[in-house]
Amino acid sequence: MGTAITSKLRIYPIKSLGFVEADEVEVGFHSLKNDRQFAMVDADGRYLNGKRNNQVNLLKTDYDLANASVTFSDETSGIGGTFELREENEALNEFISDYFDLGLQLVSNDQGQFMDMPAESSVTIVSEASLQHLQQDLDRHTLENMRQRFRSNIEVSGVEAYWEEQLYHTPGVGMRFRVGDVHMIGISPRARCNVPPQSPENGEIDYHFIKNMIASRKDHSPSAEKVIQYGKAHYFLTINVYVPPTEAGKVIRLHDEIEVLDQVRFG
């Protein structure tokens, strides 16, 4: 087994939309800085995301975080525009409302509250080998396509498929580990939803994706025996990670080594 090192770092400034790839990322409060800082919500306060509307896959983003702006584009329709990335931007709110044909506004939170599991899982980790394993078994997707389906923050290289599952232990017991000088606690594998079957290019749904992924994961031992503790099926990928508030302000860099430390009770 090789040394685990960070090989990709990605943040997703607007929940459910595109990513920014970086050489280093700063840790914020319970999350990575700028990751899921913004979300699109309707009048009832419900998120607009891939679970509700697979059209999010058609709207591409180009972020300029230094100047707090985002450029939206849809190559199919030719619709697009550049907007200041902030709350109460009427032009931006009008654009996303018209695009999704739904009354929406952009809201902001820098405390990790727009994560699927706020605080408890504000960072996700996966190994490159795990994505490659699924890519080969599903026999139709590029590696980048797989990355965009599972939207992980930290990708790890130098290790075998599903190495990342040593970053949690059993329900209620996590694993403390270190990425560079940033300490985190892995708490569980992430159960997946109906988003990964959607093509990140056009939103088309692969109705065999979940069945094929479960079969692939079930056939991979001993990782299959470990994840089954968390659900009836093997539809899991990436690790849910808790980032203590003590780590805010530290930086994670490409090629940082990951060291597994010890068990810790969690929850």
Concise synopsis of the structure shown:
The chain is α+β, with helices and mostly antiparallel strands and 267 residues long. It is built from 5 helices and 16 strands. The protein has helices spanning 90-100, 128-138, 143-150, 209-218, 223-227, and strands at 5-11, 20-21, 24-26, 38-41, 60-64, 69-73, 80-84, 105-108, 123-127, 154-157, 168-170, 173-179, 182-191, 236-242, 251-253, 258-265.
- Known CATH architecture of the largest domain: Beta Barrel
Strand content: 25-35%
Structural category: alpha+beta
* Mean pLDDT across residues: 94
Number of DSSP E strands: 16
Walk me through the topology.
Layout: E1 5-11, E2 20-21, E3 24-26, E4 38-41, E5 60-64, E6 69-73, E7 80-84, H1 90-100, E8 105-108, E9 123-127, H2 128-138, H3 143-150, E10 154-157, E11 168-170, E12 173-179, E13 182-191, H4 209-218, H5 223-227, E14 236-242, E15 251-253, E16 258-265
Parallel strand pairs: 9-10
Antiparallel strand pairs: 1-2, 1-10, 3-15, 4-8, 5-6, 6-7, 9-14, 11-12, 12-13, 12-16, 13-14
Structure explained in plain terms:
The structure is a single chain. The chain is of the alpha+beta class and 267 residues long. It folds into 2 domains: 5-31 and 114-265, Beta Barrel (M1 Pyruvate Kinase, Domain 3); 38-108, no CATH class. The chain is 17% helix and 31% strand. It has helices at 90-100, 128-138, 143-150, 209-218, 223-227; strands at residues 5-11, 20-21, 24-26, 38-41, 60-64, 69-73, 80-84, 105-108, 123-127, 154-157, 168-170, 173-179, 182-191, 236-242, 251-253, 258-265. The strands form 4 sheets. Strands 1, 2, 9, 10, 11, 12, 13, 14 and 16 form a 9-stranded mixed sheet that branches. Strands 5-6-7 form a 3-stranded antiparallel sheet, with helices on one face. Strands 3-15 form a two-stranded antiparallel ribbon. Helix 2 (128-138) crosses helix 4 (209-218). The mean pLDDT is 94.
